[in-house]
Amino acid sequence: MILNPGHPLAGVAAKVAAGERLSETDGLAIAHSHDVPLLAALAHEVRARLHGDRVYYNVNRHINPTNVCCVGCELCAYSSDPRAEGAWAYSPQECVALARGDWTPGVTEFHVVGGLHPHWKFETYLDILRALRQAFPDVHLKAFTMVEIDFLAKIAKLSVEDTIARLREAGLGSCPGGGAEIFHPEVRRRIASRKLSGEQWLDVARKVHRSGLKSNCTMLFGHVEEPRHWVDHLLKLRALQDETGGFQCFIPLAFHPANTAFADLPGPTLIQKLKVVALSRLLLDNIAHVKAYWVMLGRDVAQLALRGGADDLDGTVTDERVTLAAGGTAGPGMTAREIEEFIRGAGLAPVRRDTLYNPIAATPAGA
Ligand code: V47
Ligand code: SF4
To answer: Are 118 and 68 in contact (CB under 8 A)?
Structure first.
């Protein structure tokens, strides 16, 4: 796309057309623009170059072994005190039973994340992986964020590298991208004051990648941050990706304020949601996929995001609890057929994938 030389985004559009890397100044110009249709068109140009009209999704199930967490992030509505009503802490066999309970044909991934339980041992986390792997040997275990791995290393009294090695032996296949929030300390100290720092999150991710595992990355937006914090966060992810190449996918997570310390905030606007999707596609030139996580963006916004930079929808996501606790209304899960129709409704072509983005041919009956 070529813009009039006087247009504030003319330089950005020229770089996008030439496939050149955008600078911090370009990122700030995008982040401060309100011309979201233009940003979406630029991001769609990049996404089409990378993926044609393909939109990826998988058939997956979320498993949250416990909501008991000793961190107490201000942004979180999910975590609970061990004695509180509504606290849960499932045994490995209960995790297996949950997964069996609403099994759908063609599930290829369990997304396993939860709280940092003050009384669980490292062995409990390993046993959860082992039990799931034994019961479902063909299902990929995408488990434990950088926050959990850092915590597990501490309770196991092992190095992060040795902790990752033990998790891999127990069945870990890759890691989800949660816990990144906003790296910049000005914001992090307000929304996740007791969580590991941005530098520590990045360092654990570096070690995960060096071990040979892939992971995802995220950014939580729409709370107390400013546009410059988005740019800072995305450029830190881009720098690490230059170093390791280990991120498969970036997921912009739309903040849900209900039941958090920020319950008085409205949450992100439609314009912010679409802008962050476009900005991430434009800045993260070295991360292959941008996910429109429909559970947090909302279904309508996620569909629009597919024409504004995103090429992935996550998956069928049976039994999601993090967003639900914070007032999410996107629903309990979509069937594979619903997702395919949703993608076709945006004029794009669904591609069912496994966790590592290998295409899977057929949509199974009943999925
Ligand atoms: O780490 C917590 C965020 C994350 C709230 O890697 C909140 O494929 C919004 O990371 N409002 C968990 N967000 C979800 C996550 C994720 C989801 C889907 C796919 C993948 C992937 C990763 O949710 C947490 C935190 O950053 N979160 N509280 C809230 N109130
Ligand atoms: Fe615990 Fe994660 Fe919630 Fe923070 S966001 S309180 S680490 S479950």
So the answer is: yes
Residue with tokens 């959860």: 128
Q: Which residue in 180, 176, 181 sits closest to 191, CA to CA?
A: 181
Give the C-alpha separation, 293 to 310, whole Å.
Answer: 9
pTM score: 0.97
CB 303, CB 345: distance < 8 Å = yes
| Residue list, ligand 1 pocket, CB within 6 Å | 75-78, 145, 176-179, 181, 216, 218, 220, 251, 253, 255-256, 260, 293, 296, 314, 322-323, 326
Domains and CATH numbers, the chain: 24-352 (3.20.20.70)
Tokens of 7: 């247009």
Is residue 207 a contact partner of residue 161, using CB atoms and an 8 Å limit?
yes
CA Rg, the chain, in Å? 20
The 10s digit of each residue's pLDDT in 272-314 is 999 999 999 999 999 999 999 999 999 999 999 999 999 999 9
